[in-house]
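Structure first, sequence second, as always.
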């Protein structure tokens, strides 16, 4: 009996000394809200951009004619070059689609790191091209080193409003060549001269 009283006394003393950490059901847990505010001077991780873009453009399930993707950057000059290498049996009807996807898709990959960059849309290639110039090409795998044979190529200066040309005539011309021979008919878009006021 004496032992029981000593034990009971110890339990009373301990319960008075120990602070309870049990969260009460009516208490509120405060979690900080995520910060979606635009941040200035975000440093883009271009190595990660390159890896992410390769994952997008080399996905054969999404782009069955894709063979390879190349990305070059001149950071000081803010110049970007994109080359999407496609299989030699690439259908001419896909030229415009792949070119649009290349320019818009790359913009959107970069925009995942910097929310201040406008994403692409039906009417816009995205906000990256306000600050960076772009050179691009859709190149057949077997002659990718010869720009004269590319299905389409072009370049646009930073901040220029641009739209890719209608490829109907180019498609007809390439189809007449047959067998993927594009040597004399590859499409090229010239950068229009900028006017200063």
């Amino acid at each position: 009996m004496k032992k029981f009283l000593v034990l009971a006394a110890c339990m009373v003393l301990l319960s008075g000394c120990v602070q309870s950490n049990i969260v009460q059901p009516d208490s509120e847990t405060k979690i900080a809200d995520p910060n979606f505010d635009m941040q200035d001077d975000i440093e883009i991780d271009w190595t990660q951009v390159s890896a992410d873009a390769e994952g997008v453009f080399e996905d054969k399930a999404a782009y069955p004619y894709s063979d390879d993707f190349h990305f070059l950057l001149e950071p000081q000059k803010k110049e970007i070059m994109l080359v999407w290498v496609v299989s030699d049996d690439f259908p001419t009807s896909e030229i415009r689609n792949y070119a649009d996807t290349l320019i818009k898709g790359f913009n959107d990959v970069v925009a995942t790191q910097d929310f201040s960059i406008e994403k692409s849309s039906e009417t816009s290639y995205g906000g990256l091209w306000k600050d960076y110039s772009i050179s691009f090409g859709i190149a057949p795998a077997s002659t990718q080193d010869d720009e004269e044979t590319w299905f389409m190529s072009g370049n646009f200066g930073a901040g220029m409003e641009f739209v890719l040309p209608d490829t109907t005539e180019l498609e007809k011309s390439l189809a007449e060549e047959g067998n993927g021979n594009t040597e004399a008919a590859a499409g090229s878009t010239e950068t229009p001269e900028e006017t200063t006021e």
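Margin note: The helical segments are 2-17, 46-57, 95-111, 168-177.
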